[in-house]
Amino acid sequence: MRTSGSRSKRISKNAGSPRRVVGLMSGTSADGVDAAIVDFSPHGSTHGSPRGKPSVVAFATYPYCSAVRRRVLEISHAENVALDELLRLDFLLGEIFADAVIALARDTGIPLDSIDLVGSHGQTVRHLPDPAKYCGREIRATMQIGQPAVIAERTGIITVADFRPRDIAAGGLGAPLVPYADWLMFTDRRLTRAVQNIGGIANVTYLPAGAGAGQIIAFDTGPGNMVIDHLAAAISGGRKRFDRGGRFGAAGVVHRPTLRRLMRGAYFRRTPPKTTGRELFGHRFAEKLLKRARDDGLGDADIVATATGFTAASIADAYARHLPARPDEVILCGGGARNPLLVAMLEDRLAPMKIMTTDAFGIAPDAKEAVSFAMLARLSILSRPGNAPTATGASHPVMLGSITPATRKR
Q1: CB of 267 within 8 A of CB of 274?
Q2: For the purposes of burial, counting CB atoms within 10 Å of the CB of 325, is it exposed (0-12), middle (13-18) or buried (19 or more)?
Q3: What's the CA gap between 263 and 209, in Å, rounded?
Q4: pLDDT tens digits, one per residue of 2-31
Q5: Cβ neighbours for 294, distance < 8 A, ≥ 6 positions apart
Q6: Which pLDDT belongs to residue 17?
Q7: Per-residue pLDDT tens over the stretch 191-242
Q8: What are the residue boundaries of the structural domains of the chain, listed by start?
Q9: Burial of 348 from C-beta contacts in 10 A (0-12 / 13-18 / 19+)
Q10: Can you name the residues that pair with 118 across neighbouring β-strands?
Q11: Would you give the distance in Å from CA 292 to the centre of its chain?
Q12: How far apart are the first and last CA of the chain?
């Protein structure tokens, strides 16, 4: 292993051209930290990107303990947040994200000092993309916590974080942010593809065959796993955090009248650019759905099946409404790609489109978002834009994130 002195030299030599990057991500479901170590080979290049092609070296998810997850969700849902609580949680998550980097390196035998850069999405606790009057100005805002200064201090690695605010400052929605990385990884010369992430919220990146960066279409399609997860937890009395393997929903049937009512939501008619989150499809939405479904006499499994059908229907509806042409291939990622019931519903609604997962490209579906933020961090260090204005609505391409320097202590 290199000494701390050699570490300092290596940082100054490679900081401008990072070869090994850790991407960190925690999504709207607040399950824990996804951590991916990604190598960028200098041999060959991705479509339109700086020299370097991504290869996933290691990946793991480090779940939040129940107390931390509860605090994240409580603060995310609260209308009024105690500032002391928010500040402490910001620094606590910084420690947890740093622990994930250190643990992944240790568990896989990868020297920590072989890592050039960390890209941390953090944990979104509030996203307010629609402008609102505040002190006489139209203001959009967003907040991701997981203090990058703590990550840099604990790991000794340069850390890029706070990716969303710069896009918002440029007039964008601050989301979705992964489309540019999707374009680099998945654009094909002959095939039109849709990269469909199904995390807590579902989002699509549409990549026409041979597309340039200015032809990317991307937006949140609506709920992903968020509503399903909440219902599974509520119905099971907290024994389930999600519908593992889709087995709960598979025991029921979709209640068509409820599904039709859900699909009348105004969000689905809005034209992109658009983004959403737990503010629209969070616990209040799910609790209202649960009460109405029980009043209508639906069984527990039917309620979960209907919520799963809602996610599938909203994705298919988004394609029909907002994509200029039918994709040849749909590439699934996120936790929803591991739900066989949801995947089967999508295959039924999207046929004859070919549906696959990012496994076909050497990236586990659960790892893909973390890999994307490793790529975005690297772009920032290379002084390259990382947003897709056609997706976020920003007035121009911008470099994303703030950079926290670090050197390892002697």
Answers
A1: yes
A2: exposed
A3: 30
A4: 333 334 334 434 455 789 999 999 998 889
A5: 303
A6: 73
A7: 999 999 999 999 999 999 999 999 999 999 999 999 999 999 999 998 888 9
A8: 4-178+367-404, 188-361
A9: exposed
A10: 22, 159
A11: 30
A12: 14
Q: What share of the chain is helix, strand, coil (3-state, %, to 5)?
A: 45, 25, 30
Residue 56 to residue 223: CA distance in whole angstroms: 28
Residues in the chain: 410
Cis peptide before 273 (omega within 30 of 0): yes
Rounded average pLDDT over 302-323: 98
Residue 52 to residue 21: CA distance in whole angstroms: 12
* C-alpha to C-alpha distances, 292 to 288, 289, 298, 303, 361, nearest whole angstrom: 6, 5, 9, 10, 42
pLDDT of 331: 98
CA 59 to chain centre: 15
Does domain 188-361 fall under CATH 3.30.420.40? My reply is yes
SS3 348: helix
Beta bridge partners of residue 355, listed in sequence order: 330
Q: How many helices (H) and strands (E) does the chain have?
A: 15, 12
Q: Are 394 and 387 in contact (CB under 8 A)?
A: yes
CA atoms within 13 A on the CB side of 97: 33
Q: Which residue has the tokens 């570490």?
A: 7
Render pLDDT for 261-278 as a digit per residue (tens, 0 to 9): 999 999 999 999 999 998
The fold adopted by the segment(s) 4-178+367-404 is: Nucleotidyltransferase; domain 5 (3.30.420)
Most distant CA pair in the chain, distance: 68
Q: Which residue spans within 237-379 are E strands per DSSP?
A: 329-333, 354-357
- Rg (alpha carbons) of the chain, rounded to whole number: 21
- Nearest residue to 152 (alpha-carbon basis) of 119, 183, 179: 119
